[in-house]
Amino acid sequence: MRIKQMLFILNKVYKEPIMGQNLPKGFQFFSDHVGIKADQKDLGIIVAENVCHAAAVFTKNKLCGVSIPIGQEKLHNNELQAIVVTSGIANVATGAQGSANAEAICAAVAEDLKIASQNVLPSATGVIGPQLPIAKILPKIHHISASLTSDYHDFVKAISTTDTKIKARSIKIGDATILAVGKGSGMIEPNMATMLVYMMTDANIEKSTLYAMLKEAVDQSFNVMSVDTDTSTSDTVVLMANGLAGAVAPGAFQNGLNEVTRALAEDIVSDAEGATKVIEVNVTGWQDSQQGKIIGKAVVNSPLVKTAINGADPNWGRLVMAIGKTQIVGLNFESLSLKFGDYLIFDHGNEYSKNLLNIEQYLKNNEKVSIYIDLGMAPAAETVSVLGCDLSKEYVEINSAYTS
Amino acid sequence: MRIKQMLFILNKVYKEPIMGQNLPKGFQFFSDHVGIKADQKDLGIIVAENVCHAAAVFTKNKLCGVSIPIGQEKLHNNELQAIVVTSGIANVATGAQGSANAEAICAAVAEDLKIASQNVLPSATGVIGPQLPIAKILPKIHHISASLTSDYHDFVKAISTTDTKIKARSIKIGDATILAVGKGSGMIEPNMATMLVYMMTDANIEKSTLYAMLKEAVDQSFNVMSVDTDTSTSDTVVLMANGLAGAVAPGAFQNGLNEVTRALAEDIVSDAEGATKVIEVNVTGWQDSQQGKIIGKAVVNSPLVKTAINGADPNWGRLVMAIGKTQIVGLNFESLSLKFGDYLIFDHGNEYSKNLLNIEQYLKNNEKVSIYIDLGMAPAAETVSVLGCDLSKEYVEINSAYTS
């Protein structure tokens, strides 16, 4: 959860484009067109100059892609040196042939780079069902080292599908840096994981603590975000730490990791399919943070809330509906308070209809809409802050087209 | 759940328009314009000529309208004689004033009809937040008897909001008849209840069994239906039995009630906001029926499945995603089987891509799309059949307009 003390963090989170000293030392990128997509780059590789401490969280979708169990197995020793991503076909529902293809791609990358295949993580995104065109892909994986670059842009473009913007964020923690890059703009309600996000740091972080740190960061960023309630079969977040910048204070690193993941999550919802507005739902006054998360998710996932915000309609009754449908015991009108931005609309049983026009203007004029819900069921000390986006005709347009 | 033996029921379910002997004896209707809406009828009353045995199920939304607790209290003795419905304002989040208004409307109806106010159920649908214009409404409630008619059409029009069709179904069970009328086309994922549905029968059914019968019927109809995942604050289903046609066999009555509620549920999803297609998801091979319901709901509620069907896109990978995101233990590709209509697309690990064009044609040419999911986790003896609809640009258009 995003909690209050995080407001005191003053580290600057760098946005796109990120260059030079705001990139971590020791990581490089490769990208190419290998024939999965018609005419766009569709293969990306991240290469670390040494073996990194690493941790990852994956989709909880039970019908997951073949990359997921392979990745889980490879992360057992908390080490990685490269990540190879194919884009256009998700390698899901592809059985033993799909697994063999993923392993063959990792082996080819390892052989070309002269590193251990065990330290190469496979990832895939795209259409569910078809097999990868392995005969086209393997011959393209050679002389990787000759084409490596510290510029991540072509790598991110190569792994993107319906994304319209490059998603990348970085943050400095002392001499160290965290870089997070990713893709994703539909089929997004990650659960314990997310779309594809790769994070690299030159901080020296203990293997034993890396997973817990990643999990905390993911829980207050990608796990409180939803575009369309649809949990992908391939969601993956990986963090690689190569140690080249030396040790940093664990608390400072955790705060930086939280900030950079939250910023990247906001990049993802703002580039969601058809989205015109980011919706941030801040829930206080819950008895436990799980209640806050359930209610925040119910609001950002409600088609009627999402369409109202798309149309700048101050239809606060839909917030009431979405909160109440969670069936959480103790919800009541007498202690409920609702605000859009700075404008109160309902407070302890009373409607503030004089603010309706102000709210309409607020919704019209802002690309990020903040909703504040105080349940009043407990003192409002902490905030659960959930991210989502509006629902537009363009979302329907994009997703009703023939197999995208 | 809709189970196999129901296929053997041969009773004809009558559709709109229903007249004469296909209506139950002893129920009449009233409708008028009372000034909630600008220029449409907005008050409807159902009147029984005698006190009826009655049962009702209501929304589980915790921030429900004031009509809900009033109705629950009135149903304690399982008796009703009239139902009064206001349309345009939902009387939700209106506090003590809202409750007093609902009680005043019931009292006015009771006084005019010379019946007990305890036996008049209030119902309301429309925008959440505002108070009812009670000073306009009360003077209009007089001389009801002079305007009563056995034709339900104007009543249903008066209670409708964004509905574009009259929803009514009836069925004969021996000499008795069940009539079900209702409204609802958005904010629909009922939970233990549904939108507004009123059912009248002249069968003589014991008070003590009426609720259980209603619950069984609702569980295999309105409770396995979703338009948009949004559970209304005012959902209500009421069944009134006046006994004028004498006793009927309880099993035959239950079957008839199941059939007529299922048919009305299908009417509601087919007239859902912006919908162009009904989606029926039939799930077999589950270990318990709750798994079947969760998976069926996950599929009909997936925006990516709904938009694919809107675009006649045979994107079966989205079924895989929606099934897997339920995280039900035991799901696996090796025992999974997927069909659209008569066309197999995935079976025990193998894709039948030769059927893709047939499925595309099937989706293009049918207003009702049947999806068959066999999980293969247990013998496929029974089917859970969930109803939904596609997601179109028109849904976004309707719901992004200023406070609808």
UniProtKB/TrEMBL annotation, chains A, B:
> What residues does substrate bind to?
T161, K183, T194, E273, N399, S404
User: A GO biological process this protein is involved in?
Assistant: L-arginine biosynthetic process
Q: What is its EC number?
A: 2.3.1.35, 2.3.1.1
Q: Annotated site (Cleavage), which positions? A: A193, T194
Positions bearing the site annotation: Involved in the stabilization of negative charge on the oxyanion by the formation of the oxyanion hole: T125, G126
Q: Does the keyword Transmembrane helix apply?
A: no
Give the EC class as a word: transferase
Q: Give the record's pathway.
A: Amino-acid biosynthesis; L-arginine biosynthesis; N(2)-acetyl-L-ornithine from L-glutamate: step 1/4; Amino-acid biosynthesis; L-arginine biosynthesis; L-ornithine and N-acetyl-L-glutamate from L-glutamate and N(2)-acetyl-L-ornithine (cyclic): step 1/1
Q: Does the keyword Acyltransferase apply?
A: yes
Major location (coarse)? cytoplasm
Instruction: List the GO terms this entry assigns under cellular component, sorted alphabetically.
Output: cytoplasm
- Quaternary structure per UniProt? Heterotetramer of two alpha and two beta chains.
Give the similarity note: Belongs to the ArgJ family.
Under what name is this protein listed?
A: Arginine biosynthesis bifunctional protein ArgJ
* Species, as recorded: Agrilactobacillus composti DSM 18527 = JCM 14202
